[in-house]
């Protein structure tokens, strides 16, 4: 029944029933454990459990099993009470001097309780003594609870007045004359802990505050506060785990005292992080500049050995410029950005140095952090190309153009260092090939699923048969992307032609071709184990991504609507080359300036004019004004249609209008447009004319 619930995906509907089921099973397991104890009182619980257990084993549904939870809970309560009773017995029987006074105090009540329980003949008798047993447990725990609270509070520098109150409680326990006196002290301690809990912030709020402060402390390299923050986060994590468990009162007290410290320290740490004085500034600025100088020294030392490697000198010159940028940021008092940049430079230096060490001549253009990423991404695209060549079949012919376009898009993204979109495009190509590069056979139907949790592949399907009197062999070969064999297996179908098998799956990222052979027929499926890209991108990387996306849009827009005016005008080739160079150098300012220039020349040189028709588009104050004229042979009004497209090539407005008898027209459309380049396109008979406008 549980299996069906999860298989059908209806577990959320049955969450209460599943929770109750887990509760019953957990308590039953505990009763199984305590039933091994050799004791008259435990034997009462054991006897009832042995009578109840067979009836639970025979239940045929979740509801039937849960209906027995009341009886199971009663037995579990009794077993837990007996555990507490054992703790009290051990406390009184101990020879410790620390326990002697309190043990003597509760001895009379303990003797009376023992006499009552000696006469117990059922679990009900044990439960009737529940309050007395719990009181005994509270009494023996009180000294330990208060002592631990005082110890932790003193170590964490908590409120001295609160520590003093707890010490007075501890003295009162030592001087108590009766059990009732001790129970009053227990109540006062519980009230004190409740007040602590009410005063502090909720766990979720504290966790959010400390995680935010940790980021700031890391940026400021404030190791003293980082130490305090890490301790606080560990305490919060422990508290969250305790919420889902059943901790002892001593542990609850301890965590509440620690959470009180966490709550109190939050404001102090926050004030410290935001009160950055002049001395602290100097210390942090000096640390950043020293790290930048260390990098500069490494660059200078490396030139002795590597200056003749491909483009190594260019890499070091660019790298030194970035180090100079760190110093400029420090001078401008932007320490956060300077610290982040110097960290990124250390990572880049490590990766590029390793690349030159591993394969000095591996890249014709030399290595940079971006070039290393390009190499890795291009390897993946090469693997796709080789796979298509190896497993190409006639069915893939109709999908070749779309596949080639996706590969071209991915190459352009990689060229422009738009690795964020390249990651998504590579996953998209993998999914596309897994869907369309497969080989079909009319006599075989099958599918493959991948259980990532168990690393198991499951293949199930059917073969076409004319005679249903025998089982037939099937052969499966799993190929890697390069065509090499990963694994193979042999199994049989049923007499009806159905088959099912599972095996341990390859887990390395990539595409795997699963070729199934039945007699002389073959069919394939492709499993895509997606790559989990682990690259981290800075704010500068993401800004370059936005510029790269805009460049792709503008270039495609100009090609689609500019026609020959775009391809034959050398101004466009010149600006595009400058943009490519800016992306290659990762120069956001230069790329942005060149993109603005591209928009300007699109607006200036791409409009299509004709002596038959002309259109003009002006955008101002959230109003689009479309005007123009058409040449007429007869003086009568006509319906005209102007389409407006944005730089993504999306049709955003279809304007219907009428000209006058002279062929002149004007139309005003109220609409708020996003920044970018737009084109207004008028088709008059067989003539198309356009006008471009730029919304800033």
Account of the 3D structure:
With 696 residues, the protein is an alpha+beta fold. The protein contains 23 helices and 14 strands. The strands form 4 sheets. It has a 4-stranded antiparallel sheet with strand order 4-3-6-7. α10 (179-199) runs parallel beside α13, α12 packs antiparallel against α13 and α20 packs parallel to α23. The two termini are 63 Å apart. The mean pLDDT is 85.
How do the strands and helices of this protein lay out in sequence?
Blueprint lengths: L1 H6 L7 H20 L5 H18 L4 H5 L2 H25 L3 H22 L4 H6 L1 H27 L3 H15 L4 H21 L3 H18 L2 H21 L5 H26 L3 H29 L5 H20 L3 H24 L10 H23 L8 H16 L3 H18 L7 E8 L4 E8 L9 E7 L5 E8 L5 E7 L5 E9 L2 E9 L9 H24 L1 H4 L2 H15 L3 H18 L7 E8 L2 E8 L8 E7 L5 E8 L5 E7 L5 E9 L2 E9 L1
Antiparallel strand pairs: 1-2, 2-5, 3-4, 3-6, 6-7, 8-9, 9-12, 10-11, 10-13, 13-14
């Amino acid at each position: 029944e549980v299996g069906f619930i999860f298989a059908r995906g209806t577990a959320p509907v049955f969450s209460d029933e599943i929770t109750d089921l887990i509760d019953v099973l957990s308590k039953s397991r505990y009763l199984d454990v305590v039933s091994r104890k050799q004791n008259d009182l435990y034997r009462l619980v054991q006897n009832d459990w042995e009578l109840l257990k067979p009836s639970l084993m025979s239940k045929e549904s979740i509801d039937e099993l849960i209906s027995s939870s009341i009886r199971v809970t009663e037995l579990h309560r009794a077993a837990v009470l007996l555990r507490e009773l054992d703790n009290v017995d051990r406390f009184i029987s101990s020879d410790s001097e620390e326990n002697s006074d309190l043990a003597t105090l509760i001895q009379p009540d303990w003797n009376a309780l023992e006499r009552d329980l000696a006469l117990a003949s059922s679990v009900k008798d044990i439960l009737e003594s529940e309050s007395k047993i719990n009181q005994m447990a509270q009494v023996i725990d009180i000294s330990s609870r208060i002592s631990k609270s005082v110890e932790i509070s003193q170590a964490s520098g908590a409120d001295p007045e609160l520590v003093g109150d707890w010490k007075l409680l501890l003295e009162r326990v030592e001087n108590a004359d009766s059990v009732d006196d001790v129970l009053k002290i227990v109540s006062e301690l519980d009230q004190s802990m409740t007040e602590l809990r009410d005063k502090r912030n909720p766990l979720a709020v504290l966790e959010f505050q400390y995680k935010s402060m940790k980021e700031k402390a890391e940026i400021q390299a404030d190791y003293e506060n980082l130490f305090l923050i890490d301790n606080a986060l560990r305490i919060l994590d422990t508290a969250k785990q305790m919420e889902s468990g059943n901790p002892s009162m001593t542990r609850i007290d301890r965590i509440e005292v620690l959470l009180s410290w966490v709550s109190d320290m939050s404001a102090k740490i926050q004030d410290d992080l935001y009160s950055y004085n002049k001395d602290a500034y100097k210390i942090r600025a000096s640390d950043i500049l020293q790290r930048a100088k260390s990098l500069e020294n490494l660059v200078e030392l490396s030139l002795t050995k590597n200056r003749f490697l491909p483009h190594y000198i260019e890499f070091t010159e660019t790298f030194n410029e970035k180090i100079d940028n760190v110093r400029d940021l420090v001078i401008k008092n932007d320490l956060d950005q300077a610290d982040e940049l110097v960290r990124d430079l250390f990572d880049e230096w490590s990766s590029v140095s390793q690349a030159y060490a591993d394969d000095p001549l591996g890249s014709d253009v030399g290595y940079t952090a971006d070039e290393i990423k390009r190499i890795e991404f291009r390897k993946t695209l090469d693997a796709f190309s080789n796979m298509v060549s190896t497993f190409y079949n006639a069915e893939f012919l109709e999908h070749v153009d779309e596949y080639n376009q996706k590969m071209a898009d991915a190459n352009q993204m990689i060229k422009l260092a738009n690795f964020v979109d390249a990651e998504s495009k590579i996953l998209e190509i993998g999914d596309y090939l897994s869907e369309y590069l497969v080989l079909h056979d009319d006599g075989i139907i099958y599918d493959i699923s991948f259980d990532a949790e168990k690393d198991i592949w499951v293949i199930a399907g059917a073969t076409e048969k004319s005679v249903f009197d025998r089982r037939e062999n099937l052969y499966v070969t799993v190929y890697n992307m390069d065509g090499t064999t990963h694994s193979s297996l042999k199994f049989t179908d049923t007499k009806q032609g159905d088959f099912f098998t599972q095996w341990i799956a390859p887990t390395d990222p990539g595409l795997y071709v699963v070729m199934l052979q039945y007699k002389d027929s073959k069919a394939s499926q492709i499993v895509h184990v997606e790559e989990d890209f682990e690259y981290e991108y800075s704010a500068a990387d993401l800004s370059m991504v936005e510029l790269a996306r805009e460049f792709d849009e503008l270039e495609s827009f100009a090609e689609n609507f500019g026609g020959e005016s775009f391809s034959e005008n050398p101004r466009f080739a010149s600006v595009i080359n400058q943009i490519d160079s800016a992306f290659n150098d990762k120069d956001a300012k230069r790329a942005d300036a060149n993109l603005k220039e591209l928009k300007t020349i699109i607006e200036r040189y791409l409009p299509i004019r004709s002596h038959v028709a002309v259109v003009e588009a002006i955008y101002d104050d959230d109003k689009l004004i479309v005007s123009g004229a058409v040449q007429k042979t007869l003086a009568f009004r006509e319906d005209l249609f102007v389409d407006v497209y944005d730089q993504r090539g999306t049709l955003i407005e279809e304007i219907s209008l009428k000209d006058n008898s002279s062929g002149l027209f004007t139309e005003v459309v109220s609409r708020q447009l996003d920044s970018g380049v737009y084109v207004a396109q008028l088709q008059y008979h067989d003539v198309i004319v356009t006008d471009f406008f730029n919304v800033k």
